[in-house]
Structure formats: C-alpha cells, structure tokens
Write a structure and sequence with these properties.
mainly alpha, two-stranded antiparallel ribbon, transmembrane, transmembrane helix, membrane, 151 residues
Length: 151
C-alpha cells in the first residue's frame, strides 16, 4: 500500500509501543487470572481488574494475545507490523461486539463500558503501530516518498 509509510523514522518507537501493549495485556491477564481463578470460565459475576470487568476466559485470551504480540515484536521483520495491524482490527471488532451485547447474557467476557473503551484504545494504538512500523528496502522507501508527493 503506497499510503503506508515504509522505514518511518519513528519505527522503533512504534515497535516499543506495540511491545508495551503486549506487556499490558499479559499483566492484565495474569491479574485477571489471579482475581477470577477458581470461578467459571465465562462468569458474569462482576470480577474487575485495573478498573475493567473481566473473567477467567478474557484473562486467558488477554495473556495469549499479549504473548503473540511480544513474540511478533521480538521477531521483527515486518511480522510485528502485520500482527499489530491485524490485532488492532481484532481488538476494535471485539470492543464493538462487546459493546453491542454489554447488558445481555451474551456478554461472555464480562465487559464493562471501561473495558470496551480500553479495548478500543488498544485496537487503535496497535493499528497505528502496525501502519507505521513497516520496514522495506530503499527502493520501497523511495516509491512511498514518490507516491506521497503525488498526493
């Protein structure tokens, strides 16, 4: 895609931001596991961690996604950019889906409004890190610069 920057000067910062999101998800998941451990996997009894509603199921999902993001960040080579971009879309869709079922029995992850807002923010930040974290050759960078000047 010509409109996505290649070799952006702030790429290391975006990569670090992606890693911090992964660390946050792991910390949130571990704290959620400690808080809701021993309960039902998809309990809706009001368990909360860091001001956000959670249950054992969402805690496990958070840890798994956080680990995948950290591994992708460690590998680099545009794997992190792709994972961050697609997980950004995933978190935004998850936030919208849970917002739609917030006060129903279909709220399997025990989301609250705060959890929806944080999930959407995580999605936006991951999407930003994915869009600006791409690395390419000098030819790809020049092609991006040329396409940018035409617009």
């Amino acid at each position: 895609m010509a409109h996505n920057p290649v070799n952006h000067p702030a790429r290391p910062i975006y990569r670090a931001i992606g890693a911090l999101i992964g660390l946050y998800l792991i910390a949130f998941g571990v704290l959620g596991f400690i808080e809701t451990g021993g309960g039902e996997f998809f309990a809706q009894d009001g368990g909360a961690v860091l001001g956000q509603g959670t249950n054992l199921g969402f805690s496990v999902v958070s840890v798994v996604l956080g680990v995948i993001i950290l591994v992708a960040t460690g590998l680099g080579r545009n794997i992190d950019a792709a994972v961050n971009k697609w997980f950004g879309y995933l978190f935004m869709a998850l936030g919208l889906g849970e917002l739609a079922v917030l006060r129903t029995d279909a709220n399997i992850f025990n989301f609250t409004v705060t959890t929806v807002v944080v999930t959407m923010l995580i999605g936006i930040v991951l999407l930003m890190a994915g869009m600006y974290g791409k690395v390419g050759s000098d030819d790809e960078h020049r092609a991006w610069q040329d396409a940018r000047l035409i617009l």
